[in-house]
Amino acid sequence: MTSLRSVLWLCARYELVLAVRSRWLQTFAVVFAGLALAVAGAGYILSGGHGVQDFSRTAVSLVQIVLLLVPLASLVFGGLALTPERGAAELLYSQPVPRGAILIGRMLGVWLALAAAELIGFGMAGLVVQTQAGLDGLWRYGALVLTAIAMTGVFLAIATLLASVNAGRRTRVLAAALVVWFMTVVLFDVVVLGVASMLRSGPASRLLISATLVNPVDAARMGALLAIEGTAAFGAASLALLRFTGGAGMAATLVVLSLAAWFVAPLWLAVRALSRADI
Amino acid sequence: MIRYRAFTKRYDGRTAVDSLTLEVPAGSVVALLGPNGSGKTTSIKAAAGLLRPDSGDVVLGAERLNALDPRARRACSFLPQRVSFPETLTGREVVDFYRRLREAPADAADRVLKFASLNGAGERPVGTYSGGMVQRLGLAVATLGTTDVLLLDEPTAALDPDGLCAFYGLVEARRRAGGTVFFSSHQLGDIERLADRVAVIVEGKLVAVLSERELAARLADRGVMRVRLAARVGGLLERIRERSPEAVWFGDELVVPGSASTRPAVLDLVRAAGAEIRGLTAQEGRLDAFYRELIGAES
Fold it and tell me: Final residue of a domain: which of B215, B236, B261?
C-alpha cells in the first residue's frame, strides 16, 4: 500500500495545484497586499502626514484585520475546497488508501496554498514598506505573518471538520463556515464581555482568562500581540491572562497550546467522522 | 469474487437495500438491473467500501476481505454513476494523480488514456470536456489498476459511441483476463452484450437472478404486437386467442401480447380471415412491466 507520507504529499500537491489555478487564491494574495499597503499608508494619512508607517506600526495596525480576514478566508475557501462533489468524493475515497490520509493531505495542500497567498500578499506590501520606511521592526511584521499562517491552519482544521460532517453538502458547509466565523470573531467576545460585566471581579477575571484560551481568535490575537510586543493594544481578557500567568513567556506557552489544541482536535474529529461516514 | 451476505442499508429509516444475498463469482460479468431507486447504487457502493451496512456484510477479492477494509479496495476499482473531476486539471493530471494513489506503473497513464480515446485530449483541462469525455476519463481512472474486481455504476449512461466501444472492449478484456465485473445498468443492450448473469433488484430486494438468455426469453414472452385493420372481422379474435389467449380488440386494432415466435402464425390467421392490414407494430417486453411482474411474484 502507498506509504502514508506519499499519500499526504500526493494529495497536498493535488490540492495545491487546484488552489493555485483558482482565481480565489490570487484574489486573496491581492487583498492581503492591498490591505497591508492601505494600513501602512493610512496611519500617517490619518495623523495628517504622508508616506508609509514602518513595519512595527504596520504590524500592530494589521492585527485586527488579520483576525477578521484570515478565519473567514480559511473557513470558506477551505470548507469548499475540502468538500468535493459527490462523484469526485466517491472516486477519491474508493481508492486503496485511508480516507483520513486523503483528507489531511488535501487540507495541508490548502494550507500551503493559503500560506503562499499570505506570504506573497504581505510580502509585496512589505517590499513597499521596506523601500519607504526601512527595515526597522521587520521581525514584528514577520511575526504577524507567521501568526496569520498559524491561524490559517487552525481555521482550516475547523473547516476540515465541517467538510467531514457535512460530506458532499457544500451549501451546508458554507453556511456552517459563516456561522463559525461569526461566532468566533464577533459573537464570542460580545457574550463573554457581557457576562463578565455582570460578575464580581474574581469570577469575571477567570472567565476572561478562559475565554482568551477557549476561542482561537482571542488566542491568536494574544499570540500576535505578544509576538510583536504590542501589549499596549491588549484588551481586558488578554491583560487578565497576562496578569494570571505572571509574564509573557507563560502566556505565550498557553496561547500556543490553545492553538495547537484547536488544530489537532478538529482534525482528529474530522478523520474520525469521515472514516465512519457513508460517502 | 464479490459476496453480499444479508446486506441491509437504511437511510433515514427508509430501507434502500433489504437483506441482499448475492454472489458474483470470480471471472464472471454480472449486471445489476432494476428501476430507479431500487438500491443498485447502494449495493455497488457498499462493495466499493463507501457505505457501512446496517447489517450483513460484503466481502470481495480472492482474500475475501470485508469491503470496508482499505486492503479490499486494492482488489477493486470503482466508477461512480456521476463521476466528476476538477475542471482546471488536465485529463492526464487526473489520471496521473489516481495512478500514483494506486501505485500503478508510469506507462499505465498512456495506456488508459489511449484506451479511453482521450490520448488527443489528455493535455486539455477537464472543463473543456463533454459529458461523454468525462465519463470516458472516469473509465480510464477505473482501469488504472490491475484489480480483480471492477465495480461500475451505470457506466454507459453518459457514454458516446466511441466510449461505448471502449467500454465493451474493456469488459471483454477483463473477462478474458479472468477478472470480475459487476455493473448496474438500465440499458438492455449492455446486458445482452456483456452480462453472463443478471441480478434484478426491485425496491431494495433481490427478486431474480437470471442468465442473459433467460432474461431475453422472458422479455420476448412479454412483447406485444398491434395489428391495425380496416375493420373488425367476426370470429378472428377467438381464433387468435387459441394461440395468444390475452389478445383483445382495441377499436379496429388487434392487440396480441406474447412471444415473438407466435406472431407469424397470428398474422397468417389475420390474412386467412381476409382482413385488410393497415398497420403493424411489434414491441419487445418492457423492463418496467417485467419489474412489476417480479414484484407481484415476490409478494
Answer: B215
Interface test with B, best of A94, A102, A170, A271 (most B CBs within 10 A): A94
* Helical spans, DSSP H, in B222-258: 236-241
One domain, residues B132 and B49: yes
Averaged confidence pLDDT in chain B: 87
DSSP 8-state code for residue A277: S
For an interface test with B, the pick among A7, A13, A91, A274 (most B C-beta atoms closer than 10 Å) comes out as A91
Asked if residue A271 lies in contact with residue A103, where contact means CB atoms within 8 angstroms, the answer is yes
Show the domain range for B247: 223-283
Residue A24 DSSP SS3: helix
A48 touches chain B (CB under 8 A): no
**Facing residue for B70 by CB, picked from A88, A91, A97:** A97
Q: Which residues of chain A have pLDDT under 50?
A: none
- The cell numbers describing B248, all together, are 383483445
CB-nearest partner of B78 from A1, A94, A276: A94
Assess if residue B137 is contained within a domain: yes
What's the pTM? 0.84
Stretch (H or E) spanning A51: none
What DSSP character marks residue B33?
E
